[in-house]
Amino acid sequence: MSEELSSKKLWDKISFSLFQDLGAISFASFVDPLTPVGIENNRFIIQVPGEFADKIINQWNNEISMKFVEYANNETGEFIRPEFQKTAANHTSESEQANPTLSSQTAPLESEQHIPFSQDAGLNPDFTFDHFVIGSGNENARAIAQAVAEGPGKVYNPYLIYGGVGLGKTHLMQAIGNKYAKDNPNARIKYATAEDFLNDFTNSLRKGGDTNATALFKKTYRSLDMLLVDDIQFWAGKPQVQEEFFNTFNALTKANKQIVMTSDRYPNDIPDLQDRLKSRFEQGITSDIQKPDVQTRVAILRNLQDQNDLDIPNDVLQLIGESVDDNVRTLEGAFHKFEAKIRYMNKPATIETAKTILDEINANKKTVVTVDRIQQVVAAYYMQTVDDMKSSRRQSDLVMARHVAIYLTRTMTDMSLPQIGHAFGDRDHSSISHAFTKIEEQVEKEARMKEMIQALAEDIRNGQ
């Protein structure tokens, strides 16, 4: 979650929605007396005045908590549930409310005790190896990650994890950081998205003659013990930031410091990525994460059940696991919707309730596959435009995107070759046949091409 929506700022947004929903009298009785403390492990900690605590908490459990979860999800896209702490009335100062932290009267949260450095490093304390469910699609990546965490800078440096959206790349990468931070409390670790790195770099440049800003940027990134960078495909076509990362990469690896990266595709498939960066990445090791099978998805649900202290029948978990088959992120979203139903709406943990939430998220309904949908997904993947794919331009990345889109259109729709040709800029059927045959041969011979085609087809079907 961004800093802008953390703690009190998120509370203010939700409180406004609750005021509109509950009305002035109920709001004054059940919301206004509360004090936001902080957000930890998807729990929003709220202090409740002791003399009114039971009445307020009971009202929240009966009516308000479900609304809170809904409004928090609308603001953040995350499942955040309220958790209450009874306190002596009015013991929290205005200054503490302006900058909510755990006061001296409140015990530190568990994650702060275990991995105090994680907050500074930008790591999510929930992303650990213990919480990462191993399956056939990720066991190799998980084994390498464990080795990296236990011997950073010694083997598998750099380590790049690639795969589709929502499959656990970020979780696994941050598990490396959390493990290393726990074993080495004084280690200098930084997690950043590729966009964070770009923004930090450009901000240092914008300060112009202030050379201290540039020096601080370089010191921040080049003096680390471990650098974790998410979504490096974001740097496609951005040579200046690639140049800076190349220098950062060299500085860290020369000092035997660990670099871990994620990408939604294999480095050689990232358009306009400098060859020397690709070469550096190949010095280490790459591993991919595939979509979890049914057995793994059910295991993930059981793990979530244990983390949230719920008792859900196996046949219910099995139904959700079988129905939500695209990625881990969507699976977790389905689980939390189910949790909200049984925790805050007093619905039974049954097959019928599960079917209700599955209908709500359209888990059993696939997007109608059209040529427009295919063109949009493929163009986005290759960072091109649909208009360019339909044009006569022959740039290599563009030609590959066009051929892949033609192949997927031929295999996923009932369109004839002339119809496909018309949809791709009025090309003749022989050009369409040539493009299809070329990709078909690559799919048969190259495992990575086959995986990419399958991933794109899945995104097209699932409407992601």
UniProtKB/TrEMBL annotation:
Residues 370-439 form the Chromosomal replication initiator DnaA C-terminal domain. Residues 155-290 form the AAA+ ATPase domain. Its main location: cytoplasm. InterPro entries: AAA+_ATPase, Chromosome_initiator_DnaA, Chromosome_initiator_DnaA-like, Chromosome_initiator_DnaA_CS, DnaA_C, DnaA_dom, DnaA_N_sf, P-loop_NTPase. Residues 343-464 are annotated as: Domain IV, binds dsDNA. Residues 88-109 are annotated as: Disordered. It comes from the Bacteria. Keywords: ATP-binding, Cytoplasm, DNA replication, DNA-binding, Lipid-binding, Nucleotide-binding. The keyword Protein transport does not apply. CDD domains: AAA (cd00009), Bac_DnaA_C (cd06571). Residues 88-108 have a biased composition (Polar residues). It is found in: Cytoplasm. Pfam families: Bac_DnaA, Bac_DnaA_C. Oligomerizes as a right-handed, spiral filament on DNA at oriC. Belongs to the DnaA family. NCBIfam families: DnaA. Plays an essential role in the initiation and regulation of chromosomal replication. ATP-DnaA binds to the origin of replication (oriC) to initiate formation of the DNA replication initiation complex once per cell cycle. Binds the DnaA box (a 9 base pair repeat at the origin) and separates the double-stranded (ds)DNA. Forms a right-handed helical filament on oriC DNA; dsDNA binds to the exterior of the filament while single-stranded (ss)DNA is stabiized in the filament's interior. This is Chromosomal replication initiator protein DnaA.
